[in-house]
Amino acid sequence: MKQNLKLYVWLLNTNLFISTFTFGGGYIVVPMVRRFFVIKKQYFTEEELINMAAIAQSTPGAIAINLSALAGYRTAGIPGVVISCFAAVIPPLVILGFVSAFYEIFISNNIIAAILKGMEAGVAALMADLIADMWLMIQKKKSLFFSAMVPLSFMANFLLDINVALILLFCCLLCLLQVFWKKRNEK
What we know:
By secondary structure, the protein is mainly alpha-helical. It has helices at 2-21, 29-40, 46-58, 63-101, 103-108, 110-140, 144-158, 164-186. Helix content is 85%, strand content 0%.
């Protein structure tokens, strides 16, 4: 019981910290979850984290909340989901409530505008780190199929301006076809 309580307190504190200090969207949460859950505590592997991030993106709702729920479940079951979701939702609610109450002051303050610009640079660095980690995971698979999918997806969006949702749907369909093809050839 004492061990569970210690785990629940750790989950609450960790998710409160992650939710309070990650700005820029759901994908920024992934490196933080990696740092605390994979590297420091080894509750799951990097590959499991990448799979959870894919599931979090695919399910309805905010990626950050979905990922915290999955990490909480993997770490402490249903109580972990409840604690992680609560901890992931509270900081943004408090911050947005505070900002909306003093919106006029924030919008006209040059110092706050400069801080937000600096945060944008930090978010870009975290996203670049996440992309590099995901690319390395793909390279470890030694699959020409997956290795080609990454630059082709980038070119489809960047050069041809194809909607990201359509690219994701197409990549999912290609992966499903690959699974069915492999299953058929195994028989």
